Amino acid sequence: MDCDELSKSGFDLEESGPMMRKEVLTKRGPWPRGEETHTPTLTLFAVPKAFEGHTGVIQRNAIRSWAALMPYVEVLLFGSPEDSELQAMADEVDARVIPLTENNQGTPILDQVFAQAHAYSRATCMGYVNCDIIMGPALLDAVNGLTESELTSYLAIGQRTDLQVDKEISFENKIAVSQLNTQREQQGHLDSVVCKDYFLFSKDLFRTIPKFLVGRGNWDNWMVASTKSSGVPVVDVTEVLTAIHQRHPHSHVTGGRKNAYVFGEEARENQRLAGGRHLIKGSTATWFLTSEGLKKRTFPLISMIRDIPKFASLLANLMR
Are 310 and 191 in contact (CB under 8 A)? Predict the structure, then answer.
């Protein structure tokens, strides 16, 4: 998918589907902030890092983009309630801060994150998303397509659009959003299918998961592979949903990306908990969502074969 194709996949605030209302695009819904009079369609939950430097910039962008979809989306942020920067972000966007569990290295553990997200969620669809991912209103149309489909249980994944973003964005400012869309169309590129930065799923799934470590390799592949093994459909929503990945280094992990995802002790622990890497089975979908609805993917492996050039490029960058 090139930049022309990316421009068709729906990020613009002005190009929302039938599910969206104009007032949601200019403020956080027609109801007063904090008043729970509307049941959200989607619960988004995430585990932010410290709000420092460029990391702080891209995390604020991501979370603000999700909050722009309120009241159809509720946001849960996992971290320390004593973290003043996190609490300030949550207060700004009407998100809830939920404490999390960490290992002795200070790395968050995911099993309680998923369990607590289920406990607090008021929606029928849930979404775990990395805190560097900007989502637009097409997210709600994708969720609508899933919930209105023939599927009673599902996991949805999609490719991300990689982009360098260096400044904070106001998603209530049409000019700023238009500039972001132009930058995305001109400079963004679709990453490999193995890069999974969000999971949208029906609420019956993932109430319990292994004690995976956040930001390390292999657990994301387990999410897809275990779902397929249980016979639940995995849906590729790339065609209808643009997820902007704001590019960043991995200096917070000793050894960078190759240790975070492959060679590091915590990446290997995730691999052990997952029962392997599951690279192919954990990166291919059995269904895909289009603007015309849900379709069965006859040969899921084809998407992985077509992805070989992107995957090879990813490996080369990983090993630098």
Answer: yes
CB contact at 8 A, 67 and 93: yes
Identify whether the C-beta of residue 59 lies closer than 8 Å to the C-beta of residue 75: no
- Amino acid present at 127: G
Cα distance between residue 38 and residue 29, in whole Å: 9
What is the distance between the alpha carbons of residues 55 and 85, in angstroms, rounded to a whole number?
Answer: 12
**DSSP for 120-147, written as a single string:** H--SSEEEEE-TTEEE-THHHHHHHHHH
Alpha helices in 211-254 (DSSP H): 219-229
Predicted model pTM: 0.88
Q: Residue 70 to residues 34, 91, 308: CA-CA distances in angstroms? A: 11, 14, 38
Q: Over 70: is that where the pLDDT of 61 sits? A: yes
Quick one: average pLDDT of 143-156?
96
CB atoms within 10 A of CB 125: 23
Each domain of the chain, given as residue ranges in start order, spans 3-318
Pick the CATH number of 3-318 from 2.40.10.10, 3.30.413.10, 3.90.550.10, 1.20.1530.20: 3.90.550.10
